[in-house]
Amino acid sequence: MKQITGRELKEASxxxxxxxxxxxxxxxxxxxxxxxxxxxxxxxxxELTVALHRVFDFPHDKLIxxxxxxxxxxxxxxxxxxxxxxxxxxxxxxxxPKRSESEYDCYDTGHAGTALSAALGFAKAxxxxxxxxxxxxxxxxxxxxxxxxxxxxxxxxxxxxxxxIVLNDNGMSIxxxxxGMHEMLAEMKDGAPSGGKEVFEHFGLTYRGPVNGNSFxxxxxxxxxxxxxxxxxxxxxxxxxxxxxxxxxCESAPTETHGVTLSGERKEYxxxxxxxxxxxxxxxxxxxxxxxxxxDNLGLRPFFDNFPDRAxxxxxxxxxxxxxxASMAAAGLKPYYAIYxxxxxxxxxxxxxxxxxxxxxxxxxxxxxxxxxADGETHQGVFDLSFLSFxxxxxxxxxxxxxxxxxxxxxxxxxxxxxxxxxPREGEEGAIPKVEIGKYDVLHSTTSDIVFLAAGERCLSxxxxxxAEALRDGIDFTVVNARFLRPLDxxxxxxxxxxxxxxxxxxxLVGGLGDAVARxxxxxGVEKQxxxxxxxxxxxxxxxPRELMEDFGLxxxxxxxxxxxxxxxx
Amino acid sequence: MKQITGRELKEASxxxxxxxxxxxxxxxxxxxxxxxxxxxxxxxxxELTVALHRVFDFPHDKLIxxxxxxxxxxxxxxxxxxxxxxxxxxxxxxxxPKRSESEYDCYDTGHAGTALSAALGFAKAxxxxxxxxxxxxxxxxxxxxxxxxxxxxxxxxxxxxxxxIVLNDNGMSIxxxxxGMHEMLAEMKDGAPSGGKEVFEHFGLTYRGPVNGNSFxxxxxxxxxxxxxxxxxxxxxxxxxxxxxxxxxCESAPTETHGVTLSGERKEYxxxxxxxxxxxxxxxxxxxxxxxxxxDNLGLRPFFDNFPDRAxxxxxxxxxxxxxxASMAAAGLKPYYAIYxxxxxxxxxxxxxxxxxxxxxxxxxxxxxxxxxADGETHQGVFDLSFLSFxxxxxxxxxxxxxxxxxxxxxxxxxxxxxxxxxPREGEEGAIPKVEIGKYDVLHSTTSDIVFLAAGERCLSxxxxxxAEALRDGIDFTVVNARFLRPLDxxxxxxxxxxxxxxxxxxxLVGGLGDAVARxxxxxGVEKQxxxxxxxxxxxxxxxPRELMEDFGLxxxxxxxxxxxxxxxx
Lengths: 570, 570
Known about the structure:
2 copies of one chain form a homodimer.
Chain A: H1 6-11, H2 14-35, E1 37-38, H3 40-44, H4 46-55, E2 62-65, H5 72-77, H6 115-129, E3 135-140, H7 147-159, E4 164-169, E5 172-173, E6 175-176, H8 180-189, H9 196-202, E7 205-212, H10 216-229, E8 234-240, H11 248-252, E9 259-260, H12 269-283, E10 287-291, H13 301-306, E11 311-313, H14 318-330, E12 334-340, H15 341-344, H16 348-356, E13 363-367, H17 384-388, E14 395-397, H18 402-412, E15 419-422, E16 441-444, E17 450-455, H19 457-472, E18 478-481, E19 484-486, H20 490-495, E20 500-508, H21 513-524, E21 529-535, H22 545-552, H23 556-569
Parallel strand pairs in A: 2-3, 3-4, 4-8, 7-8, 10-11, 10-12, 12-13, 13-15, 14-15, 17-18, 17-20, 20-21
Antiparallel strand pairs in A: 1-9, 5-6, 14-19, 16-18
């Protein structure tokens, strides 16, 4: 679409603003249909973002998005309309705010709950540096469940600064928002006396609202008032928007249209999780499932439907969910905590402190592990093997297929210690093999002096791909499905006759399988030549997983070259 | 002291309860004077704990302590009086709740904010298993600032279970409690209309209180009422206690008497931090300091006194503090975030997502790194090198003395990227050397074929100790002060003529310096014999740091044996 300039926006009539909004909505819909991305949240916030750009003066003023997936209108209004068709593609615009992309993006986000803390940091810096700008945090009601938002709220008075929090209340956090804060906000929306206004005031915030966030008639005066109030202190403006606004099928199915994936993508590990947990729950009355606002994306819907009393969505509260699992395990249940790899970083301390230090039988089902693609830096799952590698008492499994994932889940039911299973989004079903803790599977055995230890489905495919190429040159090698990071299959590693070991993992190279295998041989005094392939020491930007793999260290051509060199040396 | 039994407690007269409390208080005071530990918090909760044991039926009912440092009276009342003199000593009673120690300890704690989540987990498990017991979370007002508590509060309604939260409000969280929640609780204490009661009700809690938590006359009926209310739903009982109660010097100096360390212990890295940050702040107007309720323990008092506008204690909010630092850096300030190693685990996601992904110049001053001693599993700082090792953009420094720490801080002022400096509590001052990023210091150069790469003051001392022993057998080796984990001193590593490399680190062996050095040589195709010393793959219990080092992998005798073997082989 044509770039709408700041001046045009500020001079537009009410009618023109509506017209711009219609154009923006259409552009977002068209682009997401082609590029994938977040649809309903962006459709819901068109008027709100337009109004913010109308009333405030960006980039002089600072707009910080919580999570940031709802930034498309902002991108379209800040000089990036002509690039918008590159959204989420390698080298194109990010689907999230990026300082590297525009001065209009002052702070990068991706995980929930950071915006208010960040706004306070900007405001405090402004004060100390004697500068003069407004700081606005745009936070969804889903994030308002997150502990980080509460910690920041608690700090508003401590920091004695001035920020505007625009609470974008659409009642959703991918899944519908849940919990006490949601109840309170709901009553405030209804105008019922809730104590909420008074409490926000204790936290140093002047509360205004609720206003209809899809109506310029309500939004513009409310924002003007908030801007005026902001000269004196911090303000919370409660804005109610409709997720998916303008497209009826998005309005009626906001969860399904939260993130749009392009057709042709496979999506099966999550389905297997739902199916297997339902089977387990039937045979094991102690099985329960926990998620942090991700029921559908993790495949848990069948479990929630069939075992509603044993299924818990606690909202975007990854830490609390971990402690809940640990304590339910301590009290005799068998909890399964399903979570994306990148969001598990939020629960790192609780996985150590609550789950593993007490050696409790919690099973972590870690989805979206490895390169995840189009959401970029903040959503890659490439650190989990590294941050799980050094936690005592923890077993870490890496299924090589969906069938293996099923086998691991079946095995988990009677496993009495912490277990992490990490897997990518998509995969092949494959057979359901017999899996033993800490035992690898030799897929091809050869007399070659080279062996590949490949962890996970993607790396097994990669190994097969390299092998097919190598075979053309008459070079073969053994391929081992390295199903566990912890414990390693020590017996197999000691029995390998090959001198040259190649490790392949869909994870950062630092701290992953390669380092673990090297450490094992070192400690046992066994001399091997190790070549380790995984992601180099960089944050992975957005792009297709396969592109990222090639660009950052899991490049079949490079691996093949290493095989040939190794073979040539004998 | 003599063991007070549950029956005695339940049958005691009001006068006897006071007498028991006086005895318990005296026993706590006497033991902490000898063993060290948490004093004022335990003195403040004697009556509250006695009353809980009187009204409830432990271990059938479940009592979960937040943080857990205030559990001494509970230990004395649950069959451990005769062992109490072993408090915090190797092999003795832990200073925190431990399931492994007693069935009265149903859930291990150590970090703030977990108790309510854990209570909800127990309560839900009880419901699902058709059991019948009461679950009580005892939470301090300091923890009430923590996001995890809020996430759990938000879940009370979701989980539809019944728990009793006893809010122990003493106005302290090591440092005085701060922030909006504190303000609200203060008004509730004063009986002013605050909205707080209504808000807690939205969260599914019946609010009762405040009651004087040092008075049985108020406590016993309040707990009886809460127990009755608990049959219908969840209850928040607001109890006001006086930290240090009964010892006037503790009452008047609760921060100073929060943790008692034994005389003779050195404590100097924190002092250096305070001094250096004050110097930096004078010359650099952009320098600010942030802490999560640990001003004094981290040595920041002089900075807070001299630069109150640039010093921020945000309460027990490690995550928020990280985002605050990242955003202040994005807005042009130079933040120093001082934190204990173990508590940095709470901010792991934000260090990746906010600080390092944006490559912002935040300096992490990581105190209490390595084995920390008497507080046990939940307070050891032995994972930080592992969990910082794989984060792109991050520089990780390990000073070899307090003087070096000063040099690193001075260097940091103009360093424009994320920097972590990790150090133990105690050390030697030493000279202030010239330090360059990624450059090691060769302390002893020999023609021996063995080189020690030792990281940090303790490991340098250990290397010297082993060397002194080895020299008696005519064996010498080179000692290198490995000041950085990231980046390694690649030039030095490549130039080392020695074939045998020993790495020593006060950190878990998995994912630390040894693995990094091994990876470097592997990637460069350099053949070396590495022997790595650090903590084995276990949680370190309580004990003196030196004892833990010897017991878990940094044993001078074992290292000396390895040196001799290596030397013998030539």
